[in-house]
Design a protein that fits this description.
single chain; mainly alpha; Serine Threonine Protein Phosphatase 5, Tetratricopeptide repeat
Length: about 240
């Protein structure tokens, strides 16, 4: 995800088009984009070139290396402003999440939130990082803040329900899922999670109904694959 153009932040407007071209190439062929970004970096491209290189590395699934580049960009002494630093820290955190780094991801999000303390997206991402290290209480605390900031969004309720379920609080999870589905009755993630909760409570018929609804609503999705696997395990 591109959260802003570092070219402008570096005071290099002539590099703006080159940066946009590099980003477009990431979507077309990340390997080609990486080669171009590295050549640009060697020629003094600075933050825009390095940022494009990091995004190309994410496209090539070299998540840890991308995270380290983004972390260095965020903590460097360049002329980028505080909000852009926060975005770089957040992008680093997401790269570390993709790498499964339970140590680096939360720390990157902590740094981002020091600069943007009420950013719901970054708080949500930190909650995911908390979950990666199975710190359910911290995940719930972050999601409490997200819900206070975005009370109409269903996804934070789904994530908080999952954390509560994994702590053994099935009633709390069910209450959050009711709130999520009140906001979006066809939210496949909420239906999947409600099915898992129902199964944990021993209500196989309700669980089966929710899993089947997920397959109907979101065929081919990640949640549908999980619903299909859980249905198969029930047979």
């Amino acid at each position: 995800m591109v959260l802003g153009s570092p070219a402008a932040a570096q005071g290099a407007p002539d590099d703006g088009q080159r940066y946009e071209t590099c980003l477009a190439q990431v979507d077309l062929d990340a390997r080609v984009a990486l080669a171009a970004a590295q050549s640009w970096t060697d020629g003094g491209g600075g933050a825009p070139a390095q940022h494009c290189a990091a995004l190309a590395l994410i496209g090539l699934q070299h998540y840890e290396k991308a995270g380290q580049i983004l972390l260095a960009l965020a903590s460097g002494e360049g002329s980028i402003d505080a909000l852009m630093r926060a975005d770089f820290y957040a992008q680093a955190g997401n790269a570390f999440l993709l790498a499964g780094s339970a140590e680096n991801a939360p720390a990157a999000f902590d740094l981002a939130l020091e600069l943007k303390p009420d950013d719901a997206a970054i708080l949500t991402d930190r909650a995911r990082a908390d979950a990666l290290r199975k710190d359910w209480k911290e995940a719930i605390a972050d999601l409490d803040r997200v819900i206070a900031l975005t009370p109409l969004a269903p996804e934070p309720y789904v994530l908080r329900a999952s954390a509560k379920r994994l702590m053994g609080d099935l009633a709390g999870a069910g209450a959050d899922l009711a709130l999520a589905l009140m906001r979006d009755p066809t939210n496949a993630g909420a239906l999947l999670e409600r099915g898992i909760v129902s199964l944990a409570e021993g209500n196989r018929d309700a669980a089966r109904a929710d899993f089947e609804q997920v397959l109907a609503i979101a065929p081919g999705s990640t949640v549908a694959r999980e619903a299909k696997a859980r249905l198969a395990a029930m047979n």
